[in-house]
Write a structure and sequence with these properties.
This protein is of the alpha+beta class. The chain has one domain. A hairpin with a 4-residue loop joins strand 4 and strand 5. The longest helix has 12 residues.
C-alpha cells in the first residue's frame, strides 16, 4: 500500500474507514516536520484484502463526500 502511495507522489497513508468489504486509506503529503501539505482533491487507496486501488480526482472527491459529508 505504501508503495502505491509513494509511486503516486504521496508519503502519508492513514486508515479512514473499515468494513468487511475492505479498508479505505486517505493518502496525502507531509513535510519533514510532520505538517500536512496541500495536495488538491482528496485521494484514497481502497484495499479489499488482496489488492489496492488508488482513487483520486472526481472519484476521490465523491468518496470524500460520502465518508466525511456529515462533519
Amino acid at each position: 500500500m505504501s508503495e502505491l502511495a509513494n509511486s503516486s507522489g504521496y508519503n502519508s497513508v492513514v486508515l479512514s474507514a473499515s468494513s468487511p468489504e475492505g479498508s479505505i486509506y486517505s493518502v496525502g503529503c507531509v513535510d519533514g516536520d510532520g505538517f500536512e501539505l496541500p495536495v488538491g482533491l482528496p485521494a484514497f487507496i481502497l484495499f479489499d484484502g488482496q489488492s489496492c486501488r488508488l482513487v483520486d480526482g472526481e472519484e476521490g472527491l465523491a468518496l470524500s463526500s460520502r465518508l466525511f459529508g456529515d462533519e
